[in-house]
Amino acid sequence: MNMIFLTFVFPLIGFLLLSFSRGRWSENLSALVGVGSIGLSAIVAAYVIWQFNVAPPEGGHYTLVLWQWMSVEGFKPNFALYVDGLSITMLGVVVGVGFLIHLFASWYMRGEAGYSRFFSYTNLFIASMLFLVLGDNLLFLYFGWEGVGLCSYLLIGFYYSNRNNGNAALKAFIVTRIGDVFMAIGLFILFQQVGTLNIQELLVLAPQKFQVGDFWITLATLMLLGGAVGKSAQLPLQTWLADAMAGPTPVSALIHAATMVTAG
């Protein structure tokens, strides 16, 4: 199960290679790197899911600490991945559906200008989604959350020469950022009140610190809900979703049906 970090490393490598190619690669090579990186991620994910079900970790969950990001006056966030039933399910959804969408896109996007650019964006999108669903603490979950938002902006505005498409991308970016601001406020409140952003520590400490109906925990919960409302396109932050169809068809599948809205 220690191999789980490779699920987002492969898409990141694909993103970097495609970005530095600057469109000089052939479509076949771009598709090989773009689709292949997600395929490798899917293979690793399938192995991790199989291992999780055949030999479940003690307690039904597993934490893989890769390194400590910083240490500032008791704030010591780790770059860590948390695997349990929920995260392993979302892992399967993201890489499984994402791989199928990449396969479809390798055919559908043939002949389009910016073919390799498209796959660099989608690879970064998948990496950000995996960061989101596997993050051990809310800080790194938020980084993945913002990465997904950035990639959705780039993908919706893929045909940027059309002004309407650019406006649709900008609308999606601004509206979802409103929800993201609410989420950031919720994280600040939780850290100020509890002293940690580690998800498992929060689940233990929050019931000890807060009474039912406590103002601060209610406010933090509402702020986090505001972030989810923005990403999942619920009232009143649903206005960006219809315009997001301005992107290529594979983007609509990736954002609407498979990953980002589901994450919200």
TrEMBL record:
Pfam family, one: Proton_antipo_M
Coiled coil: none
GO cellular component: endomembrane system; membrane
GO biological process per UniProt: ATP synthesis coupled electron transport; electron transport coupled proton transport
Localization: Endomembrane system; Membrane
Lipid bilayer topology: Multi-pass membrane protein
GO MF annotations in UniProt: NADH dehydrogenase (ubiquinone) activity; NADH dehydrogenase activity
Bilayer-spanning residue ranges: 31-50, 88-108, 115-134, 140-160, 172-191, 211-230
All copies of domain NADH:quinone oxidoreductase/Mrp antiporter transmembrane, residue ranges: 136-264
Keywords: Membrane, Transmembrane, Transmembrane helix
Domain NADH-Ubiquinone oxidoreductase (complex I) chain 5 N-terminal as annotated: residue spans: 69-119
Entry-linked PANTHER family: NADH-UBIQUINONE OXIDOREDUCTASE CHAIN 5
Protein name (record): NADH-quinone oxidoreductase subunit L
